Amino acid sequence: MTKEDYTLITTDALDMLHDNIEVVCYGNKITDEGYTHYNLIVGEDDDRWDIEKLNKLISTYGCEIVGDEIIYKSSVVSQQAVVAVVQAITAIETYLYFIPKLEGKE
Predict the structure, then answer these.
(1) pLDDT value at residue 106
(2) How far apart are CA 57 and CA 79, in angstroms?
(3) Are 46 and 37 in contact (CB under 8 A)?
(4) Which phi and psi angles does 22 have, rounded to 5°?
(5) If we measure between CA atoms, which residue out of 55, 3, 51 comes closest to residue 25?
(6) Spatial distance between the Cα atoms of 20 and 3, rounded to a whole number of angstroms
């Protein structure tokens, strides 16, 4: 992927590390480029990265996990599509990090 092939969008939404969530748009895809999964494997173990469960969770937003990327396929880049990916990232982070804390499993 070259600079001409994609657009990087920095949102005002914050991830669990308090970084602005960024998504990359190229072709008919909007993706986190694996950033959410990368944060998990760097800071924790990735036992909870269950693609089947996570896909059920984020399908509500029209997203899916392919490999380690959260992807939304769209014929055009729209604010709605970007928000859908941000919501999917937030839902996954809630499942991966905050639910275990609430359940006392951290």
Answers:
(1) 62
(2) 21
(3) yes
(4) -115, 140
(5) 3
(6) 20
